[in-house]
Each structure stands twice: as C-alpha cells, then as structure tokens.
C-alpha cells in the first residue's frame, strides 16, 4: 500500500512537471539484436568493463573479455575478442566467420574481380566450410584457405596464371573427353589457380557447371571462381593425404593444407621459402580473426 501511495505521488509530481513516469524507470539492456547498432566507437583511454561491445577503427566489432582502460582491441585477445553480432545488428549478414572489413584488411590491394560477395555467394556450395567445429576452428579454417589463396594469387591480384608458356601443357589428351575448349584453354584460373582439363571437368561436374567446355567462366564470374577454389579445398587431397578442410577441422595443422595444394614441390625441404610465405600469411590472417594458429604449421 505504501509503495502504491509513493508511486501515485511520484506520478502526480511528474505530471505537474510535464514528465512521464516511465522516464525515471531504468530501461532494459539493449537486446542482442541491437548490441552492434548501438555500440560506441572504441576510444583509447576509456574504461571498459567485461561485456562491453565497441566498434573499432577497422570497422569490426569487439567485446571486452576483461575490464581494461581502453586498450587497443587488436593488441591482445586477453582483453578483447572479435565479436559477431546477432539479429539485426549483425555486421556480417552472410554468416561467414570473416567479415567484409576483415576480408578487405587481408587483401588491401586485391583485384576488383575477387569480390567478398562472390566468396559468400559461393559458400552455399560447401556448407561445411568454416562452419565445422568450434568458433576457433572455423576461423582457423577460413584463415588457412584465404592464406593459401593469397599465396597462389599474389594477394588476390592475379586471376589467371602469369606464365603463358605453360598454357598448352595443361591438356591431357589421354582423357576420353579430351580438350574440347582447345589445347591451351585449361591454364590456371581463380583463387587456387585451377588447371588441367581433368580438374576443370571434375570441378564442373561437382558444381553442375560445364567448365570443360567453358573454362573461361572461372575468370569472368567471381562466384564460379570462388567455387572452384572451395571445390579443391574441400574435396581434393592433391599430393597430400587429406583435404585442406579435413586438415583444419581435424586439427592436423596448416602444414597439411600446404601439402594438399603444392606439397610435391614445396614440402620436405622442396621450397622452404614458399612454405614460409604461406605460413606468414596464415599467421597474419589468424591475428586478424583473433585466433591462435594451432600446431604443425610446416610440412
């Protein structure tokens, strides 16, 4: 009864002042769907408590894992972790563990052909890619794939193989279907430089695209290009013993992804400089995504 009288008096006082009673009632914490749309920009020197979400200068969102006096979110995952928002506030509606801002950070000088949308449109063809295991494993797989892609294309700069002298070599006429697009039509294209007529045939059959007769689609359609890269990553062991996808999901290590892509030439001391280049890029990309590299980096 006393509480009711106090409330009545409060309402009367507020009414006289032209205010609504609700204005003095604390509002609920914003729902998860709004946590990023309402997140403030990060500011150095500002005190943050555990659970605070901020938007950093790179356009990505971070959540405070421990209270801190405004440390840089990209410096230490002890204080901050990359954060994917839920609901309407999600800065990455595609659901891919790499945001567009992170993708642009990884490939600042990329060819305009290699669009982020082309990549995310291609993901539906391989639903297990970067969606298997823990959040850390998902991000490690994405980083591993993109690191190898970066190495193969000079940072997503090259769409086609640069050594044109190799072009006529990629036609294996012992195959029953031959090379209907021409002797020199099956040169390296796309993010993992798909080459040889039998690889174009196998990738096209898997994807439901006639790449044997139309290999040029890999250099004219960004989604098709990305799909061929993901096809190799998810289904082919190459000179290795497992696919790139299996290597990361089973935590066999980044080194096994190198073996699957070019192990016969680079692994076991074949070309340590090339291996180191891939490892360096993988290390950089895992740092961008805020996850450890894991063990067994070399092959």
Describe it.
This protein is mainly alpha-helical. The protein has 3 domains: 23-89, Carbohydrate-binding module superfamily 5/12 (Seminal Fluid Protein  PDC-109 (Domain B), Ribbon), CATH 2.10.10; 100-157 and 235-289, Lysozyme (Orthogonal Bundle); 165-221, 2-Layer Sandwich (Endochitinase, domain 2), CATH 3.30.20.10. 38% of the residues lie in helices and 3% in strands. The chain has helices at 2-16, 100-106, 116-122, 135-153, 197-207, 217-220, 222-235, 244-249, 254-266, 272-289, and strands at 53-55, 61-64, 80-82. A 3-stranded antiparallel β-sheet has the order 1-2-3, with no helix packed on it. Helix 3 (116-122) crosses helix 7 (222-235), helix 4 crosses helix 10 (272-289) and helix 9 (254-266) runs antiparallel to helix 10.
* Percentage of β-strand residues: under 5%
Number of strands: 3
CATH architecture of the largest domain: Orthogonal Bundle
> Can you tell me the number of structural domains?
3
The main pleated sheet reads as: 3 strands, antiparallel
Give the end-to-end Cα distance, rounded to a whole number of Å: 76 Å
Give the helix tally. 10
Unreliable residue runs: 1-34, 86-90
Helix- and strand-based class?
Answer: mainly alpha
Helix share, percent: 25-40%
Biggest β-sheet: strands ordered side by side in the sheet: 1-2-3
**The CATH topology of the largest domain is what?**
Lysozyme
Rg for CA atoms: 25 Å
Instruction: Report the top-level CATH class of the largest domain.
Output: Mainly Alpha
| Overall 3D form | elongated
String of helices and strands: HEEEHHHHHHHHH
Task: Name the average pLDDT.
Answer: 85
Signal peptide: 1-33
Active site: 152 (proton donor)
Protein name: Chitinase
Pfam families: Glyco_hydro_19 (PF00182)
């Amino acid at each position: 009864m006393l509480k009711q009288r106090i409330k009545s008096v409060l309402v009367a006082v507020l009414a006289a002042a032209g205010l609504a009673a609700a204005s003095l009632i604390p509002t609920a914490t914003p729902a998860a769907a709004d946590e990023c749309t309402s997140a403030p920009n990060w500011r150095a020197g500002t005190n943050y408590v555990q659970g605070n979400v901020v938007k950093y200068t790179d356009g990505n969102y971070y959540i405070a894992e421990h209270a801190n006096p405004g440390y840089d979110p990209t410096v230490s995952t002890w204080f901050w972790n990359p954060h994917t928002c839920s609901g309407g506030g999600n800065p990455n509606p595609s659901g891919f563990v790499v945001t567009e801002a992170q993708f642009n950070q990884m490939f600042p000088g990329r060819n305009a052909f290699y669009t982020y949308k082309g990549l995310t449109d291609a993901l539906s063809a391989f639903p297990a890619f970067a969606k298997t295991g823990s959040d850390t494993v998902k991000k490690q797989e994405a980083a591993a794939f993109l690191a190898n892609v970066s190495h193969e294309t000079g940072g997503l700069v090259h769409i086609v193989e640069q050594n044109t002298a190799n072009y006529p070599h990629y036609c294996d006429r012992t195959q029953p279907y031959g090379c209907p697009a021409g002797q020199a039509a099956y040169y390296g294209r796309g993010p993992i430089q798909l080459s040889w007529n039998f690889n174009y045939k196998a990738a096209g059959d898997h994807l439901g695209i006639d790449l044997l007769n139309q290999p040029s689609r890999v250099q004219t359609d960004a989604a098709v290009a990305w799909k061929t890269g993901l096809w190799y990553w998810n289904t082919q062991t190459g000179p290795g013993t497992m696919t790139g996808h299996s290597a990361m999901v089973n935590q066999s290590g980044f080194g096994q992804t190198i073996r699957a892509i070019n192990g016969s030439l680079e692994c076991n001391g074949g070309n340590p400089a090339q291996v180191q280049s891939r490892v360096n890029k993988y290390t950089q990309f895992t740092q961008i995504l805020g996850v450890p590299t894991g063990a067994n980096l070399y092959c």
